[in-house]
């Protein structure tokens, strides 16, 4: 991405580098600059006094000296500000930092440690070459284009729960944790904004937990790590994991074994309802990586899809009905449409000129009377081929889900849940803890 023949290029590169400094480095740098300015000013006091007695011309000279120093400082800040904005825009576009020219430059930029469990790279390759069976929603985030089209959604102002509401919901639910946490392991951090908010809360509880993100998308993983390094410079971030958390917990268990305990595993953004394997398969596999006294925080959406699909029961629907008007929904539909092309390997499924999902995609709806959930499967039906692209689920209540978790997962206790409503949509945060398994009963 080098810009050719741009005379301002060296200035921009410098500004971008400075813009990527951590907050701590910033404070140190600013103190240094102000310190020098203060020292120079104090040193020039006798000069100023002499100038005052020497007459107006000398005063003017001192005035210009101070004005030039201030202008220089302002210029420094302006270049830095522009550099930071440019660097963030580049990362938001799925790019890594400006191409480094050598090892020293890699060291200078943020070079993060990434691990992948054995087999993951082969899985990814199979998926990219042939369309791996069973990869629906997972495939949507993969690659620079996957990360970029997700970021277009998550960066829209209508995507986020308002920060104030989110923070207070986190504070309410985390009030049930009675000890300082050692680390936060985030499953699917997306753009990292939610994790940054969660880390602020955890850091404010007197502990300084370390942070480990796990994501299937390299672009999102690096962006998250960069964000956390900038916003939580003091939090240890030993490594990130590029992998698939729907399986592979044998490897994750080893990788995460050394992280300070108790650990909080988070899986937020309604991700559990989208999983290809489904929640019933995911939780038992994932639980094998959760140790005694660890916590798990996840969220689901409450309500149903009646507003978009009508109050009918199970049936087949036009998927375009799921995306009402509005810029954020337009972007979300593009994310799903581009992903559907990738999973089905059929370019016709999305008409980007008119922003429409085409007749090769259908939504199948199931309503579960016992659990009270309303579930949608977006399905591709091509010539002789059929694949699930994405799943969504909303709950009337989570009583059955919480009971199921307690009964199926060893030592699982539901510590409580907290609801947060924003723009008419209610998200329920559910907090679990793994307790010691009851001692075997003597016969
Ligand atoms: C719906 S986004 C949620 C992002 C974020 N937690 C939030 O609250 O905004 C789902 C995230 O999970 C990741 N993801 C989905 N399935 C995954 C899988 N099987 N393994 C690893 N990461 C996965 C995606 O790449 C993405 O970052």
TrEMBL record:
It comes from the Bacteria. The chain crosses the membrane at residues 24-49, 61-82. Residues 169-296 form the Histidine-specific methyltransferase SAM-dependent domain. The keyword DNA-binding does not apply. Keywords: Membrane, Transmembrane, Transmembrane helix. Pfam families: Methyltransf_33. This is L-histidine N(Alpha)-methyltransferase. It comes from Ramlibacter ginsenosidimutans. The lineage of its organism: Bacteria, Pseudomonadati, Pseudomonadota, Betaproteobacteria, Burkholderiales.
């Amino acid at each position: 991405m080098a810009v050719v023949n741009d005379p301002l290029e060296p200035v921009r590169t410098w500004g971008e580098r400075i813009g990527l400094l951590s907050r701590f480095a910033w404070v140190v740098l600013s103190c240094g600059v102000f310190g020098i300015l203060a020292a120079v000013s104090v040193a020039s006091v006798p000069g100023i006094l002499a100038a005052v007695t020497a007459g107006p011309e000398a005063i003017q000279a001192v005035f210009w000296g101070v004005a030039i120093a201030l202008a220089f400082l302002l210029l420094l800040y302006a270049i830095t500000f522009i550099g930071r904005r440019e660097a963030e825009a580049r990362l938001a576009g799925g790019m890594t930092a400006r191409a480094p020219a050598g090892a020293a430059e890699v060291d200078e930029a943020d070079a993060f440690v990434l691990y992948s469990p054995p087999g993951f790279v082969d899985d990814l390759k199979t998926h990219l070459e042939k369309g791996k069976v069973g990869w629906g929603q997972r495939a949507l985030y993969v690659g620079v284009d996957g990360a970029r089209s997700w970021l277009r959604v998550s960066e829209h102002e209508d995507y986020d729960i308002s920060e104030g509401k989110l923070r207070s919901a986190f504070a309410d639910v985390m009030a049930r944790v009675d000890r300082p946490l050692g680390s936060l392991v985030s499953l699917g951090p997306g753009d990292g904004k939610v994790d940054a908010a969660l880390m602020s809360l955890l850091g404010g509880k007197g502990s300084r937990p370390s942070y480990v993100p796990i994501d299937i998308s390299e672009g999102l993983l690096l962006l998250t790590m960069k964000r956390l390094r900038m916003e939580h410079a003091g939090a240890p971030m030993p490594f990130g994991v590029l992998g698939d958390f729907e399986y592979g917990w044998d490897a994750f268990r080893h990788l995460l074994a050394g992280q300070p305990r108790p650990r909080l595993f988070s899986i937020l953004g309604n991700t559990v309802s989208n999983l290809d394997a489904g929640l019933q398969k995911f939780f038992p596999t994932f639980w094998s990586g959760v140790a005694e006294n660890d916590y798990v925080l996840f969220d689901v959406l409450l309500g149903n899809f009646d507003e978009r699909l009508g109050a009918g029961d199970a049936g087949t629907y036009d998927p375009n009905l799921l995306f009402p008007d509005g810029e954020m929904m337009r972007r979300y539909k593009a994310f799903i449409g581009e992903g559907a092309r990738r999973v089905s390997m059929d370019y016709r499924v999305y008409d980007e000129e008119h922003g429409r999902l085409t007749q090769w995609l259908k939504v199948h709806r199931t309503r579960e009377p016992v659990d009270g959930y309303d579930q949608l499967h977006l399905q591709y039906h091509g010539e002789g081929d059929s694949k699930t692209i994405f799943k969504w689920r909303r709950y009337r209540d989570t009583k059955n889900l919480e009971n199921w978790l307690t009964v199926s997962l060893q030592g699982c206790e539901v510590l409580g849940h907290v609801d947060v409503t924003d723009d008419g949509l209610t998200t329920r945060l559910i907090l679990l803890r793994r307790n010691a398994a009851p001692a075997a009963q003597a016969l």
